[in-house]
Design goal:
about 40% helix, Rossmann fold, Sugar ABC transporter substrate-binding protein, Peripla_BP_I, 14 strands, disordered N terminus, four-stranded parallel β-sheet, 13 helices, SBP_2_dom, single chain, alpha/beta
């Protein structure tokens, strides 16, 4: 595999890191080959971008047309907040932005990408559903001379080669933080053993697979806490509530469910609501259902404050949008950019929640 430029962004920062030449396989999203308590792979960037970058960015965005092919905010609150924050950031610099949304539908996303190409934009911002199906789309963009900035989803193979840049999160590290929060809550509740329910976002997405892998890497050290079912909610809170209700009922004969973990706070909140309807009590007292999530949202902020959720992690729309905006600025300014920029999440608990309320409220 040829070497890639990978930027590792410091925690709670979204400034693009200094270029580092390392093998893409070597970063392995923070956890592989290292302790789950370590920060993301490599050394976190400590400076800001060059002093002239802001001026260059403003000039680069002015009058440019940018198409955003994204997930639908009507279904997914994270996507809605990201689309809004990204549009605001690009338009503030003078760009004209067209957003095309879909509910994680590969066929519709491909149609929207082709529609974006027909607009002849200066750049396309895109979130891939998988690498293989994205290759024909990226080839068309390359043939048309239109750069593509991918965000949020890890790309592999030819797809990773074809895009100009990717801005992603260390989802494996996010899964590790989720596991640590959940274990802490189970221990606080006095559980010597527990049955767990996992409710993920779209299971086929690389970000979901990476989060689950990170979660399981930590939970392997706690065999007394066993996930008996992992359900795919497709990031739909209503679907998450339905799935949780079904599993709570089915698990009664097997000792019940003592813990729930989810990709994101609003999915965890839906499961917690279903638990209350089933007569379970979310919390960390003896006999409570312990709930933890991977990525923060307003529902999680409220639940952590209320004591009904033990923790979450940062993978916020605002941080992602800021990092994507900066990458787009630099591409349009003709600057060299990192092939892959990895954003490092923070673990959030009741003890440090106040530091993250603003970022996590959407």
């Amino acid at each position: 595999m040829r070497e890639e430029n990978v930027g590792i962004v410091a925690r709670r920062r979204v400034r693009v890191a200094t270029l580092m030449a390392v093998g893409l396989s070597a970063v392995a999203f923070g956890a592989c080959g290292s302790s789950d308590d370590e920060a993301s792979t490599g050394t976190a960037a400590q400076g800001s971008t060059s002093s002239g970058s802001a001026e260059a960015s403003a000039a680069a965005l002015e009058g440019k047309r940018i198409a955003v092919v994204s997930c639908a905010g009507a279904q997914n609150p994270w996507c809605g907040a990201f689309n809004e924050d990204l549009t605001h950031g690009l338009e503030e610099g003078g760009a004209r932005v067209t957003v095309l949304e879909d509910p994680q539908d590969p066929a519709v996303r491909a149609q929207h990408f082709n529609q974006a190409l027909s607009l002849r934009p200066d750049l396309i911002v895109f979130t891939a559903l998988d690498s293989d199906s994205s290759v024909p789309l990226f080839r068309r963009a390359e043939a048309a001379g239109i750069p593509v900035v991918n965000y949020n989803q890890r790309l592999e193979g030819e797809a990773a080669e074809l895009v100009t840049a990717s801005v992603i999160w260390s989802d494996e590290e996010l899964g590790q933080a989720l596991a640590r929060n959940l274990v802490g809550g189970l221990e606080a509740a006095g559980y010597r053993e527990a049955n767990l329910l996992g409710i993920t976002g779209t299971a086929s997405l690389p970000q979901t697979r990476d989060l689950v892998r990170g979660f399981e890497s930590v939970m392997a050290r706690y065999p007394q806490y066993r996930t008996i079912s992992i359900e795919d909610s497709n990031y739909d809170p209503n679907r998450a509530a339905e799935l949780a209700s079904q599993i709570f009922a089915q698990a009664r004969a097997r000792g019940g469910i003592q813990g729930v973990w989810a990709n994101v706070d609003y999915i965890a909140a839906a499961a917690a609501g279903a638990a209350e309807q089933a007569g379970l009590r979310p919390g960390t007292r003896s006999g409570d259902l312990v709930v933890a999530a991977g990525a923060c949202a307003s529902a999680g902020v409220n639940a952590i404050r209320a004591g009904t959720q033990v923790g979450t992690g940062t993978k916020t729309p605002r941080q992602t949008a800021e990092a994507v905006t900066e990458t787009v600025d630099r591409v349009l300014a003709g600057e060299d950019v990192e092939k892959v920029t990895v954003l490092a999440p923070d673990q959030v608990t009741a003890d440090n929640l106040d530091e993250f309320v603003e970022l996590c409220s959407y």
